[in-house]
UniProtKB/TrEMBL annotation:
GO MF annotations in UniProt: DNA-binding transcription factor activity
Domain HTH deoR-type: start-end pairs: 20-58
Protein name (Swiss-Prot/TrEMBL): DeoR-like helix-turn-helix domain-containing protein
Phylogenetic lineage: Bacteria, Pseudomonadati, Bacteroidota, Cytophagia, Cytophagales
Entry keywords, A to Z: Transcription, Transcription regulation
SUPFAM superfamilies from the UniProt entry: Winged helix' DNA-binding domain
UniProt signal peptide: none
Taxonomy, superkingdom: Bacteria
Length: 172
């Protein structure tokens, strides 16, 4: 549905890249390589988003790096829209609903780095997790969000560099 509002595929991919995980940063050539697009197309969209204040640009040696502007008044709104577009809100809702005593939910892999490859890898940590429910949940979530989902269950808290969607201890 978001594709019909944001008709530029490049702009949508950039928003996903930088707003799924606000710590993500990248430079022009890296984005062009990742997206398989020309640097001119990427540069145009980066300039538009930077001029709007949605992205920030930082100079690092000879490279200009871009990152989401977390101080922008619409930052949380854009992030929420992008996460809903990817189905992360429904994913989290389904996990917390019947998985048991969930302590953490962490996204890893492509999606945690802002790449919408169509696959979502999820680490779920907690005691007494309902492992039988996971097969049913996988099918249900994949139908809801139209993406392949892989769950990995852990008995203990996860020390991961992924994107934390839920952390009972931290109140996230």
């Amino acid at each position: 549905m978001l594709d019909s509002l944001i008709t530029s595929k490049t702009r949508l991919r950039l928003l996903v890249k930088f707003f799924v995980n606000s710590k993500t940063h990248s430079h022009l050539r890296g984005l062009a390589e990742e997206f398989g697009e020309s640097t001119n197309a990427i540069r145009k969209e980066l300039n538009n988003l930077t001029q709007a204040g949605i992205l920030e640009r930082h100079t690092d040696k000879n490279k200009i790096e871009y990152q989401a502007n977390v101080k922008h008044p619409f930052f949380s709104n854009i992030q929420e829209i992008i996460r809903k577009y990817l189905g992360l809100d429904k994913l989290l809702e389904q996990i917390l609903e019947r998985m048991g005593e969930v302590e953490q939910v962490v996204l890893v892999g492509d999606i945690a780095e802002g790449r919408d490859s169509g696959n979502i890898e999820v680490l779920v940590a907690g005691e007494s997790l309902n492992a039988e429910y996971i097969n049913h949940l996988t099918t249900r979530v994949e139908e809801l969000i139209d993406r392949k989902v892989v769950f990995t269950l852990h008995g203990e808290r996860i020390a991961s560099s992924g994107l934390v969607l839920f952390d009972k201890e931290a109140g996230i």
